[in-house]
Request: fold
Amino acid sequence: MNVIYPLAVPKGRRLCCEVCEAPAERVCAACTVTYYCGVVHQRADWRSIHEKICQLLIPLRTSMPFYNSEEERQHGLQQLQQRQMSSAVIKFCLHKLKLFLILGRQKKKKTEPILIEGQVFLRVGSTGLADIHMVANLFMLGVFWAGLGRIIQAEEYLLQAQWTVLKSTDCSNATHSLLHRNLGLLYMAKKNYEEARYHLANDIYFASCAFGTEDIRTSGGYFHLANIFYILNKMDLADTLYTKVSDIWNKYMNEQYKLFLQNEAQQDLLGKRFEKDTSLDEAQEAEAIRILTSILNIRESTSDEAPEKIIILLKTLVMLYHLMLNYSKAKEYAARALHLAKEQLLGVSEENTIQELIRVISSEDHPM
Reply:
């Protein structure tokens, strides 16, 4: 970790802590542009994200130099804009935010410093609120604050995003879907379920136009809408939507698993090693697990008389964890599926399917 030095602040200039915005007393010795109120917040910021982006902050936060001509000034502005719009940095910040929040609120202490950094890059990277390219970032920051229970901050970003979308004539169906989903989540956090249902219904419509009704990217809208019906004790509607989400993910994982088995067969013939792959990034895998386990917990806690629905969820999680190389979790869910199939007398065919999954997992976990 870089050393931090006490500040000698010029009279009349106020420097704020990167994490809490309290008066700063120290500065990072490496980049010399990031300030902290003390050692605790500097260490928190360093561990969460600052270590990865320390040197990248220098050109973003350094004052513009004096130019001798208009040509030099235009060139300098162009160079600055390219640095400011560094998509790699913005994606890194937002990816880390998404992953931390999906994994749970117990990560809150690690998440908040990254939120601060994410906002910094959003501010310096945007050419203004009307910049449609920054809408997705506004959406994400809004929903992250909502996930931390900071509704006022969340609403500020989401309303900025909504204004930008409404002003633009060049928004895709996917962007409209993202707008309505995040507004739906915001109103769910505010317990305004009527408004949340309106936005999530629109999310499903626009996502269906963009990706299709049976796509995993559309399934999130179904899932959140089902959660509202579950909260409102409208169990028939909730059950229908939870079933649709389960079926979409089961179909997706079956397709990925078939590709994996085909590659395994080719590996035996060609002697070539194929890597297992869910075709999802780390955050998407975490979100899939959260959605599927949430529905599974609801199914197992209610007097549901359809064990087949639980079996589908368990097998989907088995395939997902197996392709993520988490053999212990894959075997755990497979054992639960097999026990339920035998207990409910679901037939030899179902039992054989599950036992084949267990055999494939065991052969890789303990190769001969």
About this structure: The beta strands are 4-6, 26-28, 35-36.
